[in-house]
Amino acid sequence: MYNGLWPEYKDAFTMLNKGKTIAKDSKGRSNRIEGIWEMQFYQEIDPGTGVTIACSPRGKTVCDFIVPNRSGDGIWCATASLYNSFDPADARRAHIFPTQFKDNAGKIVNYPATPGVTGGKYMMKYNLEGQPLAVWGWSGNQISVIRYPDILLIYAEATNELNGPTAEAYAAINEVRQRAKVADLAGLDKDSFRDAVLQERRMEFTFEGRRYFDLLRTDKIITEMAKVGITVNPSRILLPVPQVELDNNQNDTGFTQNPDYN
Fold first, then answer.
1. Which residues contact 232 (CB under 8 A, 6 or more apart)?
2. Greater model confidence, 188 or 21
3. Which of 57, 172, 195, 203 is the most exposed, having the fewest neighbouring CB atoms within 10 Å of its CB?
4. What pTM value is reported for the model?
């Protein structure tokens, strides 16, 4: 199996690139080239994934975009903070937050926004052009758990923590940035490089479920949420440990309930 970066960011999420690796499962499904670990969906047999419906504009009939007789849920929407964190020249921003979309007839249609509610931008990261949804609104697009850029950015972060921003650390993060068509990083100190990696992960993995865990491990949840006017109760950053797990580990004195849940 080959792992590397697709030449274009958008190629990492299109259904047209499903199965373009060597190893396949019993149903002929496989990860895409960037996929280290992906959740497989097969819309003809199982329910598939509803990410496209979740992202489509709320109340907007999706027939102009993908599938007839189905309205978007508008659940996954960008804040202005997220959208504005991208360099305007960043190719990722243009793909994740399009202003136009090609429908199944090949017609270019406008992709509406909701100013003041979502930062004005809906998300269309998982490309379905040329691969329409099933009639009930599900797709067979995989959901990424770990992609090759994750490995590059983990390496850059770990190298910086051990030795500062070395040439190897710069090479790793800049490989990700070069595909996004933004300038290479240079001349940062250790703290600035750490912040740059966190920001790069925010952009590269937008709507892939990484951000909470990145902020958790760097102890930045409270400060980052405060920047967008949200006050976080420190005792609710973690969920409670299920009682059944506490009961099963009574002999482990280090296994305790999370704070403020007793």
1. 221, 222, 225, 226
2. 188
3. 195
4. 0.79
87-90: Cβ within 8 A, 24+ apart? 87/182, 89/181, 89/182, 90/180, 90/181, 90/182, 90/203
Q: Name the average pLDDT for the chain.
A: 78
Tell me how far CA of residue 178 lies from CA of 15, 52, 187, 257, in angstroms. 23, 27, 17, 44
Q: If you write DSSP's letter for every residue of 102-153 in order, what string do you get?
A: E-TTS-EEE----TTTSTT-B---S--TTSPPPTTS-B---EEEEEHHHHHH
Place of tokens 């907007």: 60
Residue ranges of the chain assigned to CATH 1.25.40.900: 146-235
- pLDDT surpassing 70 at residue 159: yes
Are 8 and 32 in contact by the 8 Å Cβ rule? The answer is no
| CATH code, residues 146-235 | 1.25.40.900
Positions of E strands within the chain: 35-39, 100-102, 108-110, 143-147
> Is the alpha carbon torsion for 30, 2, 36, 93 positive or negative?
negative
